[in-house]
Amino acid sequence: MTKNNHITHAEILQFQNNLMNPQEKTLFLEHISTCNYCAEQFAEGMLDESFTAPADMKANILAAVRRPEIQIAKKINETSKQMQLLLYSLKVGAATLGALAVLIFAMNFNNNMVNSGPETTDIPKKSTEDNEDKFSLTLAIRDNMNHLSSNILDFSNTIIKTEVKEDD
Question: For residues 108 and 148, is the Cβ–Cβ distance under 8 A?
């Protein structure tokens, strides 16, 4: 340290090159932590020191990326993403088919119940120009969905009532 109790450029270089013993390092760091001037000088010294990349760094990185194990890992990652997309698509397709199956089953179940009953006026009919009675698909689906919704509502209310009775 100089007579003004500030660190010198030589001391900064010794610290950067790891040439100080542990006691000198401790004193050096303690001084920098308490002296703003020396802390600024140390920071400027760190900024002035520029690092250059090795000349063959780009070639080394490209060679490393082209290694077979890296390429295999890349292909596995891409395949994994494609498999995830395929599985997701299959799940969505299965859910769609399941929903359609439930809708068709509900329509057939409701039609069987209506046709087996004494009256067949529950299902709306639409007359065509030939005066033949045909089912209106839209109205039949709507009625079947309303019937299915009311059955689900009744079932959920029964469950709720059962839980309330059991909890009391």
Answer: no
* Rounded Cα distance, 56 and 67, in Å: 17
Contacts of 32 (CB under 8 A, 6+ apart): 7, 38, 39, 42
Which residues does 9 contact at the CB level (< 8 Å), separation at least 6?
41, 45
Reported as a single tens digit per residue, the pLDDT across 92-139 is: 999 999 888 887 777 766 566 555 554 444 445 444 444 334 557 777
Give the pTM: 0.31
- Return the sign of the alpha-carbon dihedral for residues 39, 42, 47, 51: negative
> What are the structure tokens assigned to 139, written together?
């109205």
Q: Is 7 exposed, middle or buried (0-12, 13-18, 19+ CB in 10 A)?
A: buried
